[in-house]
Amino acid sequence: MTTGVENEDVGGLPALLSAYAGEQRERHRLIWALDARFARLAATTSDAMIGALRLAWWNNALTDESGVKGRGEPLIDAMRLAGALPVAGLDQWLDGWEAMTGEIDLVAYAEGRGGGLFRALASRADIPDWLASAGAAWALWDLSGHTGNAELVGEALALARRHLIGQEVRWPREWRPLRIAYQLARDDIVRSRHAPAGLTPGLYLKLIRIALTGR
User: Fold this and answer.
1) Distance between CA atoms of 3 and 88, rounded to whole angstroms?
2) What is the pLDDT of residues 4-48, one digit of tens each?
3) To the nearest whole number, what is the mean pLDDT of the chain?
């Protein structure tokens, strides 16, 4: 089933990762689209109070059981149509993005955006600690490719190394897209290399390799 949400919301790496989600592909696609929406909100908000208010609107709309709040917003309508609501880890996810408005708090961002996003993708609030750490590492790696601040890149990658998980972890099959996302990040983090700003041929080939071999 297609939902009518613009393809530009879920292009590049998120679209490829969603393709590995099997029957959950559409839900994953919409979760990534929502993350992109939060990212644009944070990027265009420098005042923490305004950021909190804007994110609160999304929280209220996405958690409204009556289905009234947010009606007419294409992404929210699409999520309701696809049965992608409620969103696991939403509060944590929003807290992470709020940490990027005003004065940046990398620790809160990593644990919030990364842990919340991976909870949403897994559709479980009770994920193991190692998966939350994997999400935090991924979020910091992703940030490193979307800022021109060299100092922030260095801080993000240094913190990401503290969130790396052991290679012996066994990923459930249904978390394959999350495993691929994490492994893409890990390869760069251990080399202190920032993420590419977009989907490059090299990143695409690396994704295919990880999908086929697991590393």
Assistant:
1) 20
2) 444 335 569 999 999 999 999 999 999 999 999 999 999 999 899
3) 92
The two structure tokens encoding residue 73:
């917003």
Supply φ then ψ for residue 152, to 5 degrees. -65, -40
CA distance 184 to 18: 15
Structure tokens, 198:
């977009």
What are 161's two structure tokens? 């190394």
- The CA-atom distances, in angstroms, between 9 and each of 36, 110, 113 are 7, 22, 18
